[in-house]
Write a structure and sequence with these properties.
This protein has 229 residues and is of the alpha+beta class. 28% of the residues lie in helices and 25% in strands.
């Protein structure tokens, strides 16, 4: 996946600014402020941030739309990466765990994704677990609980040496398709479009879709802005 992103970036690489974050949007001035304090003007702005995040940093957004955005629901995900110093622990690729006895709901077997993923003689997993304000996760214990779950699931032995335990928090991960999602998102997107701001991708469009759909949406918007569609 990173290879696809790298190739798409090649033609415009000199214009890409990494390690910068938009913290404020002024639609009236057609300007954004970065976390560095720098202000940038724009003619057309394309945003891929999670929609609630975009709404929170937008100036002069009508209160009705801001209130509507608070109704949007999502699940957060904690990914726990486990590196084990023993090869080929399973031949599986994706494993789902609906049982409440496991903290994680899915395990991606990174060690089987490709020959260059793990060092020789090692193996790795990524365990995914969802959480919300009403169903929190103790991050300090998530690594130990994941290892315990992998052992109980037969994916590693209790004596296996663990080289890596790494946590990645994804605060907005899965869009919850509530009944009011469509009308709320449509009204918000219309307002932004009127200010030359286009919301694109899974989180800005607040749609549950994958990488192929996101790429197609990007091509379609580029063609539309260039007048070729």
């Amino acid at each position: 996946m990173q290879g696809v992103a790298d190739r798409l970036a090649d033609p415009v690489r000199p214009a890409i600014r990494l390690n910068r974050r938009v913290v404020h949007i002024d639609p009236d001035r057609h300007a954004v402020t970065l976390d560095s304090g720098e202000s940038l003007d724009y003619a057309t702005l394309i945003l891929t941030n999670p929609l609630p995040e975009i709404v929170a940093m937008t100036e002069n957004l009508p209160d009705a739309l801001r209130n509507d955005a608070r109704q949007l629901e999502y699940l957060s995900v904690l990914c726990v990466n486990i590196g084990v110093h023993r090869p080929r622990l399973t031949d599986k690729h994706w494993i789902y765990f609906p049982e409440p006895a496991f903290l994680f709901h899915r395990v991606f077997v990174q060690g089987n994704a490709g020959p260059g993923v793990c060092p020789d003689g090692c193996f790795s997993y990524t365990a995914e677990m969802t959480y919300t304000a009403s169903k929190p996760i103790d991050f300090s214990d998530a690594g130990c609980q994941t290892i315990d779950g992998l052992i109980r699931a037969g994916l590693m032995d209790s004596g296996d040496p663990v080289d890596v335990v790494d946590l990645i928090d994804i605060p907005v991960a899965y869009i919850v398709p509530t009944l009011n999602r469509g009308p709320v998102v449509d009204s918000i997107r219309r307002w932004y479009a009127q200010h030359d701001i286009h919301l694109l991708g899974r989180f800005a469009e607040w749609e549950y879709y994958n990488m192929d759909h996101a790429l197609n949406a990007g091509w379609a918007l580029a063609d539309s802005l260039n007048g070729t569609q």
